[in-house]
Design goal:
alpha+beta, five-stranded antiparallel beta sheet, Yope Regulator, Chain: A
Length: 386
């Protein structure tokens, strides 16, 4: 865990822009990394291997026989993270990179439509790159993950038949090590960690109990949620956590989610509390309708749309996989400016108390009533909730 790592030193662990910059540099045959088109060819072959043969826009043999040296790699062209144009193969590869966030509603569809206009005569390979091969909300994309990226890179620098320049090999190895430590789960590191824990369980638990709590308003709200009987934390990340309602787990019969695409519990609705790295100070609580039966999702969304007094912040149009049907800032960026952490904590607790006493109970009741209507076969939306 301790060796020097260049990417950790410059703070490029979870920054999407820096990951995209490095990958774009490596994929460009014209860059002076000494690898030519080998990284680009290897990555495309790896992506194609994740697809059914009938869905592949190009055959692997055609890729091997083709000339990739004329490839042009763009960053943020038409807002696409990495765009690779291969004129000789009449192929364009679009990579949407998400390290610590998710794609916006309709974002992938918009990019696909732009490329159809910009490259009408080209075949298209659309890639959704995430740490855990998250399924895209657009059928034109193939899910791809960082573990495959680093495996492909390792195969390049370990090929004895085609030596890699020493400097390039070192940098790629640093990148691979950083990704495995921080982005994807490395089984070797996990095994070592488990072994250490088993040998020194009491010491680790004592250290964990003595750890200082970070000054985070997200931690403040998490504590507020856990102190409310009937609320349960579902999952969490570096800048957010999701929670649900025990009564929903017990009573919801129709409003269910797809466990393969979102919460493994099969919950279709989750509250999400989130901070925003690009908007320091902002803290938001939202109610998210996740992937599930399309007809059910449409009815829930339509019902929320009839009661805008309760379901404030409903996002339009409805996303194919996720959509926010309620949103409220517990602290805005403007409010947080100039505040000490203690002042921010005071305001967040006050906002949570107002949300809990005013809107949370009404939202819980409205969802239960709607599920009962759907279970009875009625498509009628719930009425305004007091």
């Amino acid at each position: 865990m301790s060796p020097f790592n260049l990417f950790e030193a410059v703070g490029a662990i979870r920054g999407e822009l820096r990951h995209s910059n490095f990958l774009a540099y490596l994929l460009s045959p014209s860059r002076p990394h000494g690898l030519g088109a080998r990284p680009l060819a290897a990555l495309i072959r790896s992506i194609l291997s994740r697809m059914d043969v009938k869905d592949r826009p190009i055959m692997a043999l055609e890729l091997i026989a083709g000339d990739l040296d004329d490839a042009i790699v763009y960053r943020e062209r038409d807002s696409i993270d990495i765009l690779v144009e291969l004129p000789s193969l009449k192929l364009v590869v679009a990579i949407e990179n998400k390290v610590g966030s998710k794609a916006g509603d309709g974002q992938l569809k918009r990019y696909d439509e732009r490329l159809k206009v910009s490259y009408p005569d080209h075949r298209r390979l659309m890639v959704f790159l995430t740490p855990e091969s998250t399924l895209p909300d657009h059928d034109g994309y193939v899910a791809y993950d960082y573990s495959d990226v680093v495996t492909t890179m390792e195969s390049l620098i370990s090929d004895e038949l085609e030596p890699v320049p020493t400097e390039t090999k070192l940098i790629i190895q640093h990148y691979v090590d950083m990704v495995r430590r921080h982005i994807v789960q490395d089984e070797q590191l996990r095994t070592l960690a488990v072994t250490l824990y088993e040998r020194h369980k009491e010491a680790f638990e004592f250290i964990f109990d003595c750890r200082p709590e970070p000054n985070s308003v997200l931690t403040v709200v998490r504590g507020c949620v856990q102190s409310v009987q009937g609320l349960v934390v579902d999952s969490s990340g570096s800048n957010m956590f999701r929670f649900t309602v025990e009564a929903w787990d017990e009573k919801l019969k129709v409003i269910k989610g797809d466990p393969a695409k979102w919460s493994k519990t099969g919950r279709g609705l989750l509250f999400e509390v989130k901070t925003y790295p690009n908007t320091p100070g902002r803290l938001n609580v939202s109610l998210i309708l996740g992937p599930g039966d399309p007809e059910m999702r449409q009815k829930v969304y339509a019902a929320a749309g009839t009661d805008t007094k309760l379901f404030k912040g409903l996002v339009k149009p409805m996303g194919a996989q996720w959509v926010t049907i309620f949103s409220r800032d517990l602290l805005t960026a403007n409010q947080a400016k100039g505040m000490t952490f203690e002042q921010q904590e005071f305001n967040v607790r006050a906002a949570w108390s107002d949300f809990q006493g005013g809107q949370l109970g009404s939202l819980i009741t409205a969802i239960i009533e709607l599920d009962e209507l759907l279970n009875q076969g009625s498509a009628a939306p719930v009425g305004p909730t007091a």
